């Protein structure tokens, strides 16, 4: 009975197991929290932008679940692409830093959904070092 219940929860077409899902979501949550803290560290004192950093902690795992769900279905992925292309955000994202952090969140969620954890780790290290150098030299070259 428990095996049948797990198979029902996983779905008929799901090629990944429950532990892979838990690991991907856990990694995505950790990456989203790291992106949130990096945003707060480097841009939190500016009080500019639309405040999209507040959605990072929910957005990262949500994007990962979307990508995990559509991995096995081409029609679902095309439908998701079509539906996202008509979405209009009510709050405009005007700050380039927010757009960069949103891209970081999406990239880390894609890495989590495809089990490319090392790639995401290298990305976060590179972004952290780049932002640190930019922060240290912000008044010297402007």
Question: Would you kindly provide a written description of the structure presented here, covering whatever features stand out?
Answer:
The protein is built from six helices and no strands. By secondary structure, the protein is mainly alpha-helical. It has one domain. Helix 2 packs parallel to helix 6. The chain is elongated, with a radius of gyration of 18 Å. The relative contact order is 0.15.
Rg from alpha-carbon coordinates = 18 Å
Number of domains: 1
Query: What is the 3D shape?
Result: elongated
Estimated helix fraction? over 70%
Q: Into which percentage range does the β-strand content fall?
A: under 5%
Main sheet specs? none
- What is the string of helix and strand elements? HHHHHH
The structure class reads mainly alpha
The first-to-last residue Cα distance is: 66 Å
The chain-level mean pLDDT equals: 81
How many β-strand runs?
0
In short:
The chain is mainly α. Helices cover 70% and strands 0% of the residues.
Q: What topology does this entry show?
A:
Layout: H1 2-10, H2 18-43, H3 56-70, H4 74-85, H5 96-113, H6 117-136
Helix pairs in contact: 2-3, 2-5, 2-6, 3-5, 5-6
InterPro entries: DUF4956
Keywords: Membrane, Transmembrane, Transmembrane helix
Protein name: DUF4956 domain-containing protein
